[in-house]
């Protein structure tokens, strides 16, 4: 196996073996890759995007586009008042309150408690979080947080700063056999190879050629599912790849019905694909949500007003749109005189859409933003398939429950990426029982992407009903079967399979909870349960799965 070093244009070349394959190059994937390499593992990162170049404007990961920041409890932080005193207990209480009864406190506490040490590692790798004149980290507030605990970088360019720091740290790793990270850029994983019940590697498609990497451990860190919908805050790569790979490999998924809609995506009528996010931190710094008549959108809805948990605010926005018949609401930023300096990313995004920040009014609508559920993992990122790990948005650890607390996701990706690396270190001695030949995918249902997105946007969005879900299920079931032969078709197969799982999960949940609102079942059951699904003979079936045997 060649050992080309990380850098512009570098790739894994004829790579066919590694100690760890990481699928995805966001915060969870690169953190795992770095930690594993620090322990001497050889790592191949399969990245759907182009090779990283510091001078390139964008990377197609959700991490890169993250604005608000990282929610973290800092020890020994200088307190600026009674509203400022934080603790893991308080962070957990806020996480549980947002999570609509499905956040697992046992899994969540250690993740939150590991936050500061993980953020410290990120800072050591070069992440330049914003600080005040005394060098103290600046903190802001977002929805559902009872104190200011969100650290940020570049104002609202937190994700870009993190992505840059991680890539720089990767680039600084010495090359050499067994001590390097190699990238397969512009590549998509098409299948997880499982041999004798154990992971043996991945198959991938790159430049119209199929290849394999043998490895005893594979980490799915593929991000989210935003492109199930016509408009989303997610980058183009958020096409459910990891969910589909995990289902086909035999892993379980849970809580897929909880697709979080961000309350403030820039309103751009008729546009498809990634839309500009207006960070919740804008409200944390004093922005106010008003309807077309200037009335507060959240008055009387929740004691936390515009900074209530995200599901509450998104639904209040939807209600205001319905009641006024106006297609959007507005974020009034007149109370933020320094807006452009504090929010340069948002300012550039709205300017690109022809809106002048000096107008003090940003038109917004709810937009598909985050998959709260995902591939079921234990607290070490292990799935039910021996050797298959998942971390970041693709995973369901139990932290997010029915509605993720804002800015808990970068934290989770960081913490779980580190834990996944530790698992990979423990498995490095395992070798595939035999070489497995290159395999190409078989026929799979593939629905036209526009039809799929329009169906999901109309029937399975912020509000659902049994009739709408049945109509969506029928459309998805009509998908023709084809052999995916391009990256786009591999993505479309993943979107189609995941859409059927989301619809199955939303149909099974005959109540309203968190990010899942059923207009025909508005009540919330007294006791909440997660529903777990798997793929059986090509069909999504409820699995009644209760834990992970490791
Ligand atoms: C935001 O900046 O509003 C997004 C934060 C998040 O999704 O956690």
TrEMBL record:
Catalytic activity: L-aspartate + O2 = iminosuccinate + H2O2
Example GO biological process: 'de novo' NAD+ biosynthetic process from L-aspartate
GO cellular component annotations of the record: cytoplasm
Example of a GO MF term: steroid dehydrogenase activity, acting on the CH-CH group of donors
Keywords for this protein: FAD, Flavoprotein, Oxidoreductase, Pyridine nucleotide biosynthesis
Sequence ranges assigned to domain Fumarate reductase/succinate dehydrogenase flavoprotein-like C-terminal in this UniProt record: 451-522
Chief localization: cytoplasm
Record family assignment: Belongs to the FAD-dependent oxidoreductase 2 family. NadB subfamily.
PANTHER family noted in UniProt: L-ASPARTATE OXIDASE, L-ASPARTATE OXIDASE, CHLOROPLASTIC
Protein name: L-aspartate oxidase
Origin species: Gordonia alkanivorans CGMCC 6845
